[in-house]
User: Fold this.
Amino acid sequence: MEKYIFYAFAAILLFSATMVITVRNPVRAALFLVLAFFTSAGIWLMLEAEFLAITLVLVYVGAVMVLFLFVVMMLNVNLTPVQEGFTRYLPLGILVAALITAEMIAVLGASHFGLDIVSAPIAHGANYSNTKELGRLLYTVYVYPFEIASVILTVAIVAAITLTLRRKTSKFQDPGKQVKVRREDRVRLVKMDAVKPKPPAVASEETAS
Amino acid sequence: MTFSIPNIAFALPEMVLLGFGCALLLIVAYVDRAPQGSGFIAYWFSQATFVITGLVIFQGMGGEGGQTFNGGYIKDGLSDILKLAICLINMVVLLYSRHYLQARGLFTGAYYILAVFATLGMLIMVSAYHFLTLYLGLELLSLCLYAIVAMHRDNKIATEAAMKYFILGALASGMLLYGMSIIYGATGSLAIPEVAEAILSGSVNRVVLNFGLVFLVVGIGFKLGAVPFHMWLPDVYDGAPTAMTLFIATAPKIAGFAMIIRLLAEGLGGAHAHWQTLLIILAVLSMVIGNLAAIAQTNIKRMLAYSTISHVGFILLGVLVGTAEGYAAAMFYVLAYVLMTLGGFGMILLMSRAGFEADNITDYQGLGQRYPWFAMMMMILMFSMAGVPPMVGFFAKFAVINAAVDAGLMPIAIVAPKTFQWALSVNALAVLGLGFFPGALLALCTRIFM
Assistant:
């Protein structure tokens, strides 16, 4: 039974992942990505990685993809045209992909990773806390990678701000200056005669120079 | 897996650098509205950061080494020397690039923040003793480099270069990560000493191991720019502003060398025969194509990029020998390469001014008459890159080839000298030279691996 559920999830996952990169409408691509996340969360649940599965749904589907969809819809991105040379390189691409897939099947199949070679992990009882174990490992054995990951996230923020923030060109109000403004700064009264000014003496200037 | 309280003292350089980096982040956030911008303060602060980190590394040099953070971190002779070199090189890089950045309005605090964090990534890579740590250090470094290349936003070529760099870098990371996961499947561990032990015990499935190894080598090839994974390198070097090119072409290569040593020599040393074949292809192709393509270039940055590709070939040549002598020669080569590249791009920075990039080789015509001193320095550097005897480049090439010949790899050793970059020295005339005596450094590199 479990086997068939796995195959069903895997098939949907592969299908939706392929659709993400082939569909031409970005909104549909984002929605297929959501589907891919859901099915991989399902596979993780079957692996007894409940915490990771829920995090994937909450963080990626709930937060990241919603923001993503927001941006895609706000930007009004149109259908992306088929890339030039796509059809030209398609046969070669398919050939390479097929070769790599065949190799992967040969190496990663049951002959090298079968249950008789790699024993199945022990199933844990109902009172086993996945989250607790994860937290324990993350803050003890893997504390150094964990800290580096946090630095990477900091750098990601710094990089994003550096590349998008343009303070020089943005317009903003300065209330202090607004309060300090005087009448003379805004309005200039000019006294002018009601008569027409004389036309400039063009001829005389020319002789002078 | 049991947990032991980590010996934090080993990781003092990283912690100092991280602390100063965070402080710099705060300082830049506060002084950003100052009339002259945050660049001035950020520049001196990051220089001070590198000095202090360098001093901390120097202080701990030669002291007791060992692993900490449950095998995620190692302090040994290799990490000490490379870390010190990274700090020194980055100080010079910042010094060289300052006026270039000022003239182009890029003299902002953000550049220095990213430079400090990139350095942190390099230090983490150099002392990584776990695949996970190594990968995270690499990502930290790469992320900073992508942003540094893209910083000149109004420059379309720089943005395009950053895009190429980002996409191919992500692909390479994916390859590397996939290879690591397969090796985990084969050996049952991600810790480098445990992987090495598992391979030496002979209980590992060779087919699976080789499968992972191929992905690992492809990932390394992409990251270092070895042929046939080199196509991004000239575009990125050419497209990025020269100061950024200087940054990505120098110290990250030292970290890349450390990555090869940790992954292939220390982790997969038992599978040496397998990765040697792969590296031979990469090394020979890189040396030949790098040198030949460099001749045809009219742009000095592209020429130096192709020269980098051929230097990567030499570094791989030293590594693929697989002996202590070979690793020492490769390490000496990478340090000599960084020194020469520093001078080469430094010279381009010197000749560029506001609104003018000295990118073309023809821009250097008549340099000998106007600035005879710099012309001579450039000549020394180019001769060094070509491997002419009294320069450091000769000793580096000599050591690498010597190691290859000693290990009985005669055919490859013959390919290498034939493709010396004579063209490089004929084509160009100018650079900032660094007279260098190789004996002490070579001895140091040798001592680490012996």
Q: What stands out?
A: Residues 417-438 of chain B have pLDDT under 50 and may be disordered.
